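sry for the spam today, last one i promise. struct tokens for design, 260 residues
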């Protein structure tokens, strides 16, 4: 009879849950908007992922939580998101030695070893200009679906230039570029470059070694991934579902602690 483990990541923008078996194989996962009540969201996503797996709460041997609102989840243990990201990436990409996480509040660069242990890390300030939240803002201003931003930016021939690092002023700059006649694809490509610059700045004091995995909501944007590759001069790895990596890591840690 199989044994199952649950990981929950309650982020500032999105919440994720993963169920794995004893081998670390992912049975199913769930991603929902975090909303304003983390406790309610945690309960709802747990119910959803259990339903998808055809399991009951009693079938879960151990659980772990992480993220901004992770302590609101009813789990056996809480773990920092950086540690969980490292464990999750190590399972998916054992060869990865660096992680770029483009999350809802900012970006992180994590240096890890061959066992998925954190060696060093650097995090941007909590600001939309270095996060996936900026992509939501951009999509709203351009009246586009967020999933269309990446493919659109790849058509750019003259990316727009943005001078500010403040979200409020950056929004004004985007509107100004539109008024000046910049093409939507050039504006999007310019914003991608701006986020990539933020990521590159994180390498100060933290070594970045191949191979590099890009995770978080921003990793769903192919244009942003390409910009990060160009800025770092490195080919990067992107998981099939880059948003669930921290939840996966929380489940793996819960599994390991339960069998110690």
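last one done:
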């Amino acid at each position: 009879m199989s044994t199952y483990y649950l990981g929950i990541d309650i982020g500032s923008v999105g919440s994720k849950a993963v169920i794995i078996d004893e081998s670390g194989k992912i049975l199913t996962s769930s991603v929902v908007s975090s909303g304003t009540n983390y406790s309610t969201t945690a309960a709802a996503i747990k119910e959803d992922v259990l339903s998808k797996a055809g399991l009951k709460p009693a079938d879960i041997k151990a659980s772990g939580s992480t993220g901004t609102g992770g302590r609101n989840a009813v789990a056996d243990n809480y773990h920092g998101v950086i540690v969980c990201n490292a464990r999750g990436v190590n399972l998916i990409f054992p060869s990865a030695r660096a992680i770029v996480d483009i999350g809802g509040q900012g970006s992180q660069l994590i240096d890890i070893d061959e066992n998925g242990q954190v060696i060093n890390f650097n995090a941007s300030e909590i600001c939309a200009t270095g996060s996936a939240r900026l992509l939501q803002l951009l999509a709203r201003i351009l009246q586009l679906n967020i999933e269309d931003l990446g493919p659109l930016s790849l058509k750019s021939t003259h990316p727009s230039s943005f001078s500010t690092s403040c979200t409020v002023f950056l929004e004004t700059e985007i509107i100004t570029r539109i008024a000046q006649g910049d093409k939507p694809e050039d504006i999007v490509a310019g914003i991608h470059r701006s986020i990539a610059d933020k990521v590159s700045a994180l390498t100060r004091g933290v070594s970045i070694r191949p191979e590099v995995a890009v995770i978080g909501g921003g990793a769903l944007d192919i244009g942003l991934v390409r910009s990060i590759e160009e800025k770092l001069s490195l080919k990067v790895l992107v998981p099939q579902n880059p948003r669930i990596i921290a939840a996966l890591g929380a489940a793996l840690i819960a599994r390991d602690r339960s069998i110690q």
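The first helix runs from residue 38 to 53. ok im logging off now
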